[in-house]
Amino acid sequence: MDYETPLFFHVMEYADAADRDVVDMVSGNPDWEPPEALRDGLREYADFDPDRFQYPASEGLSELREEIAARRGVDAAQIVVTNGAGEANYLAMARALERDAGDEILLTDPVYSYYPGKTTMLGGTQRYVAAGAEGQLDPAAVRAAASDETAAIVVNTPNNPTGAVYPAETMRELVAVAEDHDAVLISDEVYDHYDLSGQFASALETESTHRIVTNAVSKSMAVTGLRVGYVIFPPELVADAKSRHMLVNVATTRPGQYAALKAFRETGPDYYERNRELLRERVDTFTDALEAAGAEYTTPQGSFYVMARFDGYPGTLANVERLIDEAGVAGMPGEAFGDSRSEWLRFALVTPRVEEAARRLAAYFD
């Protein structure tokens, strides 16, 4: 089996090896502070007795699962705490394919490139549904692509890379498509706290046994290295997911779970609003510069990515390397996200140097 190594790693290595100063806009690693309660939780944990550094329950600390369950309106027994949203999506896709209800995974184009790789690794086949110019997904197009071979429909809202946020009607219709084809809607909602539109709707708002929701504290609390995520399964799918999680990972970091729990309990909504406001300012700064450079671009409704198209400069890996060498800005090639955005580049607005990067791009493409 051929595994696909995401281009992220290649671009990051190339930027690190550059002979000049480079503004890194490759990966979605927030540069702002995590909640103070999370830091406090890690400090507290350092002084606990040795038994607290041993294996936790494989499915996650019971207190953390109960906290998540109360917030999301589900039963704690439906939740598996995972090594970030990455493992959550892996478990969700595995369970969808193990149902023997087809081996096809419907993905959007553009797509977060880890989804196709996971599909291949799990023995499934990919089928793509094109998103609109601003990244919105037409449920009618998803319905037209679905068949008896469809095991799962995987969506990400707010979306990476387009910044689209799917409204409640779209989410309801996607669940309905999954139900009609005995498939599972897998909704990756890791950017839910970065909804800039006020339109975000979780798949959990539609009661169904045909939807799985994944999430993590990685983005919302600016701790991508903590590796604490979770997945919410329908009751009939959770037992085997827990077994797979135990066999693959045994358990998730115990100190990290404790810190995440403390942060959930003690972090108010103002923390998340400050980060959204910072992101709004960066979107304005960056898109203003793209406008000045004559680029076509997306204005994100959520998440923290902007896609841009410069005339005569397609989004190839070679052009990304050229931009690093000649402009000192590192983004991602559009071709990494599917055929429909091969002319585009993607930039992550998670650096305090957004304004400097914008100036460099404007000057380079002037």
From TrEMBL:
Transmembrane domains' residue ranges = none
Q: Which GO terms describe its biological process?
A: amino acid metabolic process
Cofactor(s) required for function per UniProt = pyridoxal 5'-phosphate
Q: Which GO terms describe its molecular function?
A: pyridoxal phosphate binding; transaminase activity
The record's Pfam families line, in alphabetical order, gives: Aminotran_1_2 (PF00155)
**The keyword Methyltransferase belongs to this UniProt entry's keyword annotation:** no
Boundaries of every Aminotransferase class I/classII large domain copy? 21-359
SUPFAM superfamilies in the record: PLP-dependent transferases
Q: Give the record's keywords alphabetically.
A: Aminotransferase, Pyridoxal phosphate, Transferase
**Could you give the subunit structure recorded for this chain?**
Homodimer.
Family per similarity comment: Belongs to the class-I pyridoxal-phosphate-dependent aminotransferase family.
User: What protein am I looking at?
Assistant: Aminotransferase class I and II
What is the source species?
A: Natrinema pellirubrum (strain DSM 15624 / CIP 106293 / JCM 10476 / NCIMB 786 / 157)
